[in-house]
Specification:
The chain has one domain: Acetoacetate decarboxylase-like (Beta Barrel). It is mostly beta strands and 276 residues long. The protein has helices spanning 50-54, 86-89, 123-132; strands at 35-47, 62-63, 68-80, 95-107, 110-120, 136-138, 140-143, 157-166, 169-179, 183-184, 194-201, 211-217, 220-236, 251-264, 269-273. A hairpin with a 2-residue loop joins strand 4 (95-107) and strand 5 (110-120). The chain has a 15-stranded mixed sheet that branches.
Length: 276
Amino acid sequence: MKTTASPASTPRPWKGQSWPRTATGRSSLVEPLPHHISCDALHVTFRAAPGAVAKLLPPGLEPLETGEGWVMIAEMAKVSTANPDQMWQDPSRSTYNECVLGFYCRFGDKVGRFSALVWVDRDWSLGMGAIFGWGKRLAVVDRTRLQAVNPAFATPTRTLGGTVSRYGRRVLDLAVTFDGDGVPLQALPGHAASTFLYRYIASPSPDVPDIEQLFELPFTNVSMANIRQGRGQLHFGDAEDEDLDLLGTVEVTGGYAYQRGWTTDRKARLLRDYTA
């Protein structure tokens, strides 16, 4: 008599770094890690009241007494080591725009960076956020393209800017003004700190707990170039459900432009499992 194997006994492994997973893994939003990442960024630093910053930090992270934070808008490039030719064969899968609003904070005695809110314009970048714990949202992210041969950039003073919008509402905008090419720097102040990640996955069942974890992620192959200092501007818009109003009035402390590169891989260290 012919019998049918139960679903549990039928080997059918699915592949893929993220959802959606299939037998081939080709439909996965995220190509296999590690990924080599780079950015051409505008970066504005600010200070806010530490109590306000705390409202945008997960349990276990404490704001610095100075309330230091930053907003970065950048043109990004991603190259998966599993498919390095993708960057020229299918550039739309390797380029995107991103905005990050983050804070310097403390876990015990360790000072690090936490990206509280992130906006991107590609769904596959959104998929990376789910893996690592970056709170990414789809948005329209734009920034000034600096092309030195453009006659408009021949003036001694130039201002570059960036904007983020969702559903027709402005989330934020920033700008950095440079005298000439700006003041050259050897390093971006404070930006070499560790990266903290907050990962949360809600459970669909009352019998299974939510996943809630705090990680520290090291980047490798980190390099920076063309760091220039200018004068920053930052304005938060009136977009709903962004929680930027929690920060109140902020004090802009600097403006920068730079290029940065690094490698992102699954090397995070678990700091706290809230469900343990």
